[in-house]
Amino acid sequence: MVSLKINGEVRNADAPPDMPLLWVLRDILGLTGTKFGCGIAQCGACTVHIDGAPVRSCLLPVGSIGQRAITTIEGVGASAAGAKVQKAWLDLEVVQCGYCQSGQIMSATALLNSTPHPEDADIDAAMAGNICRCGTYVRIREAIKHAAKA
Amino acid sequence: MLPKPNSASRESAMSDSIVQESIPRTDSALTRRGFLQAGLAVGGALVVAFQLPSAHGAQAGKSVFAPNAFIRIDAHGKVTLIMPQVEMGQGIYTAVAMILAEELDAAFDQVALEAAPPSDKLYGNPVFGIQVTGNSNSVRAFWLPLRKAAAGARAILVQAASQQWKVEPAGIRTEKGEAIHEASGRRVAYAALIDRAQGLTPPKDPPLKDIKDFKLIGNPLKRFDTPDKVNGKVVYGIDVMPSGVKFATLAACPVFGGTVGHVDDAKAKSLPGVRQVIVLKDLVAVVGDHMWAAKQGLSALDITWDEGPHSAVSSDDVWKQLRAASKTEGAVANSVGDVAKGLTQGDLLEAAYEMPFLAHATMEPMNCTVHVTPTACEVWVGSQVFSRVQAIAAKVTGLPLDKVTAHNYLIGGGFGRRLEVDMVASAVQIAQQVDGPVKVVWTREEDIQHDVYRPVYRDTLSASVSNGRIIGWKHRITGSSIIARWLPPAFQKGIDIDAIDSAADIPYDIPNLRVEYVRDEPPAVPTGFWRGVGPNNNVFAIESFMDELAKKSNKDPVAFRRDLLGKSPRLKAALELAAAKSGWGNPLPARTGRGIAVQVAFGSFIATVAEAEVDTHGAVHVRRMVSAVDTGIIVNPDTVVAQLQGGLIFGLTAALYGNITIHKGRVQQSNFNDYRMLRINEIPQIEVHLIKSAEAPGGIGETGATAAPPALGNALFAATGIRLRRLPIDQDVLSGKKPS
Amino acid sequence: MNDSPNTSPAKRYTLIIIGAVLAVVLIGFLWIVVLAPHATDFAGGTRVALTEYHGEDPTGVPAELKGASLIERGQYLARAADCAACHTAEDGEPFAGGRAFVLPFGTLYSTNITPDKETGIGDYTDANFLDAVHKGIAPGNEKLYPAMPFTSYTYMSDADVGAIKAYLFSLKPVHAPDRENSLGFPFNQRSLMGIWALLFNPDKRFEPRPARDPQWNRGAYLVEAMEHCGECHTPRNLLQALDQRQKFAGTVQAGWRAYNITSDPKSGIGAWSEADLAHYLAIGHADGRGTATGPMGEAVDHSLRYLTQSDITAMVAYLRSVPGISTSDLPEPKASPAPSSFADGVAANADPRGKAVYAGACAGCHDWTGVSPVIPYATLTGVRSVNDPTAINVVQVILSGAHLQTSDSRTAMPAFGSAYSDAEIASLANYVTARFGARPSAVTAENIATLRAQD
Ligand code: FES
Ligand code: FES
After folding, report:
1. B225 Cβ partners below 8 Å, 6+ apart?
2. CA atoms of B16 and C126, how far apart (whole Å)
3. Ligand lying nearest the CA atom of residue A26
4. Which residues, 6 or more positions from B192, have their beta carbon under 8 angstroms from its beta carbon?
5. Terminal Cα-to-Cα distance of chain B (whole angstroms)
6. Residue B56 near residue B167, CB atoms below 8 Å
7. Is some CB atom of chain C closer than 8 A to the CB atom of B668?
8. Cβ(B363)–Cβ(B412) under 8 Å?
9. Mean pLDDT, residues C273-301 taken together
């Protein structure tokens, strides 16, 4: 039994310590907003925040998290930066199929928290780990700058 | 506003037979667009279908007005559109809703969507006669039928109003969900008319709006599906959670056509959370309390495979066979004038182009959730061919269609992969052995190694040019026929209408022309539709070859094309716009070049200029892509731009990295580490310029993927003088290490 | 006429030269053969035959297994000797052989050591098996190539070799004919290997050192006779025999660098704590030290992780006693993480492609700091390979990935070799060493091509 702090709530899950957080979120806790894309930290679809830092949950052993705060796409809107990013995503109609966007939004929010006014180089460094098969990159870049101005 | 997945399943005709009925007779110069027109021509049956009362109406009773299978208006004024097409990110929910709301004069903020149930009869795509979302044709195919359906409904509401007010219908206009009698200034909401409207029949040919009166169409309206995609609420097939669901993942025989030999599952079964190990003919699945248990169980299995007949097949075999086949005569897809004679006049140029196998790598891996009981089967999945989902589930379980309930979901990337139902068939077989619902999720490795692949193609072209004009043109396309497997009745006279699309109907003025198709099925490797399919092969070959011909004629690539586009003013206009916007002809730094490619594909006329730089190692940096697009009447301009932006990146990914290779009958790639995707720090600046047009709408979803590779190839030639005739781009060729 | 006492100058010079050459050969022979130190001579004191040793028996299995069956003991020892690693082909049946060893002078294939009578060792007598393991001589007086580490295995006690045989014979026979070696002349002359063995195989069982405690002696037996660490970590002389004067100073083997494991604090493992060493051997990872990859990863997977705590501790005790030798090109590993921003930490003029690839494919797991937010196994800070200015192991891991069986599951890094170009991988390796290491590497695309060609 692990006890996790997710989006401000304490949630308990009957999961082995080596089980990646991704599957605990999706299959045990029903938080399916966090997506499975590759399972090897190559696509970013599973990105969540651990104490505000973007982390690939597909490889993160749930037993290693302890009491650190986990934020998922379901909860990120509660933060100012998260809300700004979500709004920018809609204002610029970034989304296509949307499957990668939970991860994109988590990475973008973490970027704005650490770098309120990112330049292209900052965006490249923070977002290159998130693959979008639909190719929404052009708008992701614009939306991050749009959110930074908001 | 998001559609509730629809659970109805009253359609009982086998989809196959529907396919038979609605395949149009086609003759000479077959093309997908020719096919489309034919499809609409024989669409009579379907137009009738549009008039069938919808099951929902019947069931919902008097308080709902359901004039046809697509529209439902309830007493609160909510207008529900039953959505025949699936949303994969292409924005079709919004576009189709705009079309219906436009002709119905509904208030857009009262429009809600509901995914259509499986029914070829009610919701078949007029082009294919079955319920399919593909071929970039949703708007094209439904443009007229849906407008007619909506206009009919509107006419009924006007009739109802005229009865209520005892005035002539002619004096009544409609707007934002209300009928308005100008003379008296009376207005009534549609909602208040529904009881009166029951039973009224629409006029035979309800008048359609004049384009100039469009209020919604042409505006960049916000998408229906996106709000829930930014907050984690959206539910894709992979997210469904029927109560008591178990989780499974699988390993299919790594060798195509192989089967399971022996499985030692002792260790797997001993792992915590592992419930069941299921062995089918060609795959092994592990069922667990969650995906992690299933994955752990799978890797703990000791499986010996019977590799079957293909265990020695390699990419070399595939190419040997394809090259040999490309030397044989093909079925004639189009023939004009006297090619043999034409080719003897002027300077002759010959070249062959080759395209690799490609995987779809949709961001949402293959998955399907199924619950099988002795008397029923319930399926949860995102599919581009919903009626086939139901049909295959019925076939596997042996249950009648009406005992199979299917729920369709938003799709995390289709690109043609979800035009197949293999993931449904295996999931149903697994579910047959599981007590309760089971969600089968493929690992990315399975997803890449057990795809249906964009076929390898070889295009051999020969042409003669004399003072800047093409006298003779011979194009032979050799490759797998997806249509022959996927829609057999459409494979006629040895011609695959998809494989020759955008080649048989080449837009240039050419007096003597012959286009052939040679069907060659690769050993072992299954093939399927992929974003662009036929056109992205043909346009790459034709536009690369056009550049080579321009060089042979010492003409500028843009000028050379322009002079040959006399009979295609729309494409010519796009060419000129793209050239102008890209600064064609302006000087560029060393090892940097511009390339142009034009296309008539999916009913759209597009010209694209790529600007790219090559370093001494042959590494390619794409700096800029500029597309000029004439896609006829534009329903939602923002969606068109988005599809081009994404499609160009999809095409660049394929051109730069896309390559599925075969060794010992297996696919060698497995995940994003070796099946590489373009990332945000690699993308060029992208500009899309839309051309206003009053022509019927064209398709857009696949056009960008088609446009990027030839434009890039031509830019790389301009930058280095090296011509790439194979994809993906080989850096060793560009760096001069290898001959091209 | 009487003979002149002195011969003509020319003749004399020739004789002098011949003499000199002979002298050099003789000294060389004395130096690398006769005077070559024994594997444990660094420890000083005397060696005695096992029979004369009165301490606890350093051979055999640890206390926990003393009561176990012959086959169980054999399994433990076969694992300690890591037979499987070499005698199993990539996704082949265990012990059925066929693994290729690409050497400068051709390719060798390991043999089938399952009890299959036709293609394996099913017909071996105990004597046959002892000869093969101790002397490198197969039935029919066929001389084995020293890829089979018989100069180490020769220290194994007869009883232990017997137990291993019993274990192997308990396995399911696999019919797998040996693959033809492809060696050029003169290396295809097996008889020469006989001479080589004569010169370099002590052909002696393990000799404990009474001056050292039982734990040290057990460690010595495990390290020298069973795990044969020196086969990779000890440099070889002109004639390809282990140069015990350079014991454990590190070498490059099959495209991977086996690092200096002497107690030198900077270039060796002198700075590692006992716990670091114990963890590294037992689970293939020690925080702040690194994760076993490549051949060392295999050694952990197939062998070391099965050893008991007591045996691991004994190995650590022995390794600790090996005198330090400094490797000039290996700096002291940089212990501090890189800056958290991609913008800091690496010279701005560095090849930008390395950073671009790192941002897309690597940062998600290794972070910009090098401290993995995901799994400790992926942390790069303090790791020897990123502190190796040749970057050879960094490149190998990028090309072919890494796999490690952990206590509860498998951890792996995917292989990037097939999807990234030589130039990209070179600049990535240079970026990684510059960002996380003490000294940047200067790998070229050509280097990558060469390394690819090796496997
Ligand atoms: S699923 Fe975690 S990075 Fe792809
Ligand atoms: S929006 Fe479809 S993968 Fe990014």
Report:
1. A95, A98, B2, B87, B91, B93, B94, B234, B410
2. 70
3. 1
4. none
5. 53
6. no
7. yes
8. yes
9. 95
8 A C-beta contact, residue C86 and residue C110: yes
Q: Is B413 in the pocket of ligand 2 (CB under 6 A)?
A: yes
CA dihedral B133, B138, B144, B146 (to 10 degrees): 60
Residue for token pair 């249509």? B483
d(CA B622, CA B193): 58
List the one residue out of B230, B89, B3 whose CA is nearest residue B639: B89
Q: Residue A116 pLDDT more than 60?
A: yes
Q: How far does residue A102's CA lie from ligand 2's centre (Å)?
A: 10
- Token pair for residue C436? 């996380």
What pLDDT digit, counting tens, does each position of C144-194 carry?
A: 888 899 999 999 999 999 999 999 999 999 999 988 888 888 778 888 888
C364 CA: nearest ligand 1 atom: 3
Q: Which residue has the higher pLDDT, B175 or C8?
A: B175
- Rounded distance between C-alpha atoms, residue A20 and residue B500, angstroms: 47
Beta-carbon separation of B674 and C359 below 8 A:
no
In this complex, the residue of B296, B619, B674 whose CB is nearest that of residue C421 is B619
Q: Which residue of B has its CA nearest to C446?
A: B617
* pLDDT exceeds 50 at position B17: no
What's the average model confidence in pLDDT over B696-710? 96
Contacts of B33 (CB under 8 A, 6+ apart): B501, B505, B602, B603
DSSP H stretches of helix in B301-411: 315-325, 339-344, 386-397
| Pocket of ligand 2 contains residue B91 by CB under 6 Å | no
Quick one: tokens of B400? 């009648």
Mean pLDDT across B165-189: 95
- Give the closest of C342, C364, C412 to A44, CB-based: C364
pLDDT band at B27 (very low <50, low <70, confident <90, very high): very low
Alpha-carbon distance C296 to C304, whole Å?
10
Contact A59 C360 (CB under 8 A): no
The chain A residue lying nearest C401, using CA atoms, is A40
Please tell me whether the peptide bond between C208 and the residue prior to it is cis, using omega within 30 degrees of 0: no
Closest C-alpha to ligand 2, atom 4 = A132
Residue position matching structure tokens 């020892």: C77
Closest CA to A137 of B650, B232, C343: B650
pLDDT(C109) > 80:
yes
In sequence order, the 6+-apart residues with CB closer than 8 A to the CB of C167 are C70, C71, C72, C73, C74, C75, C77, C78
Interface test with A, best of B236, B249, B622, B680 (most A CBs within 10 A): B680
Query: What confidence tens digit (pLDDT) does each residue in C312-336 have?
Result: 999 999 999 999 999 999 999 999 9
* Minimum Cα–Cα distance from A121: chain C residue: C343
Chain C within 8 Å of B618 (Cβ-Cβ)?
yes
CA-based nearest residue to A29, from A52, A54, A4, A51:
A4
CA distance C382 to chain A (A): 21
Distance B608 CA to ligand 2 centre (A): 23
Pick the ligand that lies closest to the CA of residue C363.
1
In chain A, which residues have their Cβ closer than 8 Å to the Cβ of B241? 30, 32
The answer to whether the beta carbons of residues B39 and B25 sit under 8 Å apart is no
Whether A45 is in the pocket of ligand 1, judged by its Cβ within 6 Å, is yes
Give C53's DSSP letter. Answer: -
- The 10 Å Cβ neighbour count of residue C165 is 24
Determine whether the shortest distance from the Cβ of A101 to ligand 2 is under 6 A: yes
Task: Using alpha carbons, list the distances in angstroms from residue B616 to B299, B654, C416, C445.
Answer: 43, 22, 22, 12
3-state secondary structure B551-620: HHCCCCHHHHHHCCCCCCHHHHHHHHHHHHHHCCCCCCCCCEEEEEEEEEECCEEEEEEEEEEECCCCCE
pLDDT of residue C6: 58
Q: Would the CB of A54 count as within 6 Å of ligand 1?
A: no
